[in-house]
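ok new one. same drill as before - structure tokens go in, u give me an amino acid for every spot. 386 of them this time. try not to just spam alanines like last time pls lmao
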């Protein structure tokens, strides 16, 4: 194994002022081959990065909550075919907002919205902050993307908004995992934080993971301003308990903790039955391909990828090295992972270096240096090292 090129590239990013700091971990068969902390934990204070640094994971929280939901499926207390309104009755009033030009034409649901739809992002929920559309503007106006809404206010506002698509009609990345987390709270009578600790973190020995930084002194910080745009960077405040436990963006963890989670999915040991671990990391969009699934610039899994239950899944040729069955996801705060089961390979890149969004440039985050270009190069360097 030769990681010299990866070393040189990472050092160049830090020395060139493009990255405040990072923790990078590459493992094979569960054993770390490469584990490095470089740059600064806090660039303003000059503190050096450390291997046990805590990172705001943003959307890398989604695989956690998806796996949590499958623990309920495994024990028989939840079904993928259960309708959302069974657990959150306010969502019985949902309608679809068909976008006709700049108008939103409301229409009834053709079928119930299922737990299965929440897991594979075919529910029709969206985000207001990424890309632009008439329905997305309604999400922005309602403020449902905000982190500081209490649980009940979030659910009340979201249930009054239209879905962007009919359930099962299209892959639409959005607030589905947040809703899934609150569904599990209603099902169990416990908070999402309690459920994650009992069913995922404690069994896997993920002692640093949660919805609040357990040791704020180890919390990685971004640059004060984005080096590309000059905009001020403000990430989620995770030093205190959040107003609600956001299953789609609220998690905090370390590289070693997240590796334990990825290995549980790869091996089918310690968390889910192997059959359910495979179910989570297999493609579930196949039927939609035959029906003309929309794959424009908003299809975030990317060329050559489908989507499983919380993770993107490689189907064939894509823009980077990899094997069919590889799965990945990333977080808006600057984090990324991929797992190649055929090679028993797991890799993590954790930083706090996002491009902050503007309503005038909503697609920028997914096509910036800190988005797909960085992940593509990182992945290429990992495979080259092997």
């Amino acid at each position: 194994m030769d990681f010299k090129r990866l070393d040189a590239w990472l050092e160049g990013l830090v020395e060139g002022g493009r990255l405040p700091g990072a923790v990078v971990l590459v493992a094979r068969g569960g054993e770390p081959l490469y584990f490095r902390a470089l740059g600064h934990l806090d660039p303003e204070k000059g503190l050096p990065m450390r291997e046990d640094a805590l990172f705001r994971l943003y959307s890398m929280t989604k695989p956690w909550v998806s796996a949590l939901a499958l623990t309920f499926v495994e024990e028989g207390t939840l079904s993928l075919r259960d309708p959302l309104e069974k657990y959150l009755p306010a969502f019985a009033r949902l309608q679809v907002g068909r976008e006709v030009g700049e108008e939103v034409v409301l229409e009834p649901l053709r079928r119930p919205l299922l737990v299965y739809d929440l897991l594979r992002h075919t529910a029709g929920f969206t985000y207001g902050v990424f890309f632009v559309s008439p329905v997305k503007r309604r999400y922005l106006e309602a403020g449902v993307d905000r982190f500081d809404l209490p649980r009940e206010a979030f659910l009340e506002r979201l249930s009054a908004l239209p879905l962007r698509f009919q359930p099962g009609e299209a892959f639409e990345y959005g607030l589905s995992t947040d809703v899934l987390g609150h569904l599990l709270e209603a099902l169990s009578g416990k908070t999402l934080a309690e459920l994650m600790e009992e069913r995922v973190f404690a069994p896997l020995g993920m002692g640093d993971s949660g919805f609040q930084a357990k040791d704020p002194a180890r919390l990685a910080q971004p640059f004060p301003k984005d080096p590309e745009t000059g905009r001020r960077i403000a990430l989620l405040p995770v030093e205190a308990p959040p107003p609600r436990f956001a299953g789609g963006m609220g998690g905090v963890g370390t590289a070693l903790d997240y590796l334990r989670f990825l290995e549980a999915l790869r091996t089918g040991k310690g968390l889910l039955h192997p059959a359910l671990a495979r179910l989570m990391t297999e493609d579930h969009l196949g039927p939609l391909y035959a029906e003309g699934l929309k794959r424009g610039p908003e299809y975030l899994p990317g060329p050559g990828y489908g989507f499983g239950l919380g993770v993107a899944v490689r189907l064939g040729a894509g823009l980077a090295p990899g094997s069919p069955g590889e799965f990945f996801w990333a977080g808006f705060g600057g984090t990324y992972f991929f797992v190649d089961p055929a090679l028993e390979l797991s890799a993590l890149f954790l930083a706090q270096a996002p491009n902050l969004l503007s309503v005038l440039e909503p697609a920028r985050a997914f096509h910036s240096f800190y988005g797909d270009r960085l992940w593509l190069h990182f992945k290429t360097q990992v495979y080259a090292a092997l």
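Confidence is low (pLDDT under 50) at residues 356-370. and btw The first helix runs from residue 4 to 15.
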